[in-house]
TrEMBL record:
This is Peroxiredoxin 1. GO terms for molecular function: thioredoxin peroxidase activity. InterPro entries: AhpC/TSA, Peroxiredoxin, Peroxiredoxin_AhpC-typ, Peroxiredoxin_C, PRX_1cys, Thioredoxin-like_sf, Thioredoxin_domain. GO terms for cellular component: cytosol. The lineage of its organism: Eukaryota, Fungi, Dikarya, Basidiomycota, Agaricomycotina. The active site is at 93 (cysteine sulfenic acid (-soh) intermediate). Keywords: Antioxidant, Oxidoreductase, Peroxidase, Redox-active center. The keyword Oxidoreductase applies. Belongs to the peroxiredoxin family. Prx6 subfamily.
Amino acid sequence: MLSRQLLRLSANASKARCARPMAIPRLARPSGTQLVGRFYSTFNPKDQPRVRIGSTAPNFTVDTTEGEIDFHKYIGDQWVVLFSHPADFTPVCTTELGAFARLKPEFDQRNVKLIGLSTEGVESHKAWIKDMEDVTTGGAKFSYPIIADSDKKVAFLYDMLSEEDFNKIGGGMVPTVRSVFVIDPSKKVRLIMTYPASTGRNSAEVLRVVDALQLADSKGIATPIDWSSGEDVIIPPSISDDAAKAKFGEFKTLKSYLRTTKSPIE
């Protein structure tokens, strides 16, 4: 009796094995890689671009909450502020993206586009935007795109990860740090700021540095510590006194290398 039961169990087990699809062996994944669709995407530190002030902003094509974009085409002939946030549905990030949304009219006046990023998907971003419209935009429509960098391609290109999370980039979701890149119409990186995840940024500071950069480009001046729009500016030492007087009119000489003048009118 026992023998017949064992035979039936063995037969049933054989049928079950035949009914199941054959298991596909799991391929060994090289260190520092992740599976994207059916292909491996390799994150080799040696391949990471050196993004510095003055370098060309790396281009990429990516999905956003407003559709697919080619980043250089998105920049067009405008300035861009590209900034990353650690994760959707997090408190500090909600206040930050909402603050940038409220300031968007100010950025628009300066010919500046905004674009955010995290390593989560479009649907997550879209659901989160509703929270920001409820809490931080005063009910106004959220009106700039957020990049869905779930494959971490942009985070890698722009080095938006902490040391710890960079070492885990080949795994699951990793949070980006709070990176800020100001990029000009020629696609050159003009300013880089990086904050830890625990520290919210100052959106007014981003607006201030845009003013400083644009004024420096158009009028050939420099801006001192804590400068705000309309305050006195610095005449570069490369400009002689005679040339400075011809260009700016009256100026103050504090030291031979430190001269200030009224802020030029745009």
